[in-house]
Write a structure and sequence with these properties.
This protein has 299 residues and is an alpha/beta fold. It folds into three domains: 31 residues, no CATH class; 105 residues, NIF3 (NGG1p interacting factor 3)-like (Udp-n-acetylmuramoylalanyl-d-glutamate--2,6- Diaminopimelate Ligase, Chain: A, domain 1, 3-Layer(aba) Sandwich); 116 residues, 3-Layer(aba) Sandwich (Udp-n-acetylmuramoylalanyl-d-glutamate--2,6- Diaminopimelate Ligase, Chain: A, domain 1), CATH 3.40.1390. It has eleven helices and ten strands. A five-stranded mixed β-sheet has the order 1-4-3-2-10. The protein has a five-stranded mixed β-sheet with strand order 5-7-8-9-6. β3, α5 and β4 form a beta-alpha-beta unit.
Amino acid sequence: MEKKSRTYKRRDFLEGIVKAGTAGLLVVPAIQNMHPAKSFTVAEIIDLIVKEVPGGKLPSTVDTIKSGSDDQVVTGVVTTMFATVKVIEEAAALNANFIIAHEPTFYNHTDDTNWVENNQVVRQKQELLQKHRITVWRFHDYWHRMKPDGILHGVLLKTGWLQYASPENVNFQIPATTLGKVADHLKKTLGIPHLRVVGNLSASCSQVTLLPGAAGGQRQVGSVERSGTDLLIVGESSEWETPEYIRDAQRFGKPISLIILGHCLSEEPGMEWLVQWLQPKVPDLKITHVPSGEAFIWV
């Protein structure tokens, strides 16, 4: 009975189309094959990303393929901060053979696999990537050159500060509050369990300079000196640079505080937002953000 019911419904459907006209009946096969799934190679995806970057392709960049091949047909994409062993394993489980990572895969800025001679962890990681036939491409310089900066936009979006800031400017104003409340807000919105802070938690804050990642002490301190900000938020900083500057500045009476988010967690929202940015360009591919998370535990 169930089979007859399905046949009957299909017959009624086709008869309905015939009543609507012969032209309507001829359209049915065309509709079914109008949008066949489109396949992409790694190179094609990289090209469609880079063409969106102001200035186009860079003559020199760390944004290169770290493992695999650019002519590989992509079965799925994973975005992440670091292509860690865990992220690689999760990508394989998702049948995703293309990882787009913001930071190095092999523990140094240029991903020089001979940076430390006979590095056994590097060799094991290479073998793991080869086993799962996964291509890794670093997407750092281009994402920061995008308009808006992909990382900064993602962070502002996740913190709810996009209403106060332009992704083109790292300096902006938020409603006046305290350092402690800003810290709580960042922990909640960015999912960071612990923050490092230099300053009095009751200090007033409204003028913010936000520098995710590792901008370097010179840029961090320079931004404070030029902007007159009262709160500097960074991803990471050498302890003998910016934190010491902030500590001395406070002693001299300068109203400035510092929040250190951690490099990975400060930029992860930008790689998460990449999924929304890239998905419409490759609608037939599944794109998943797999957070690499922080390496540290707090004891």
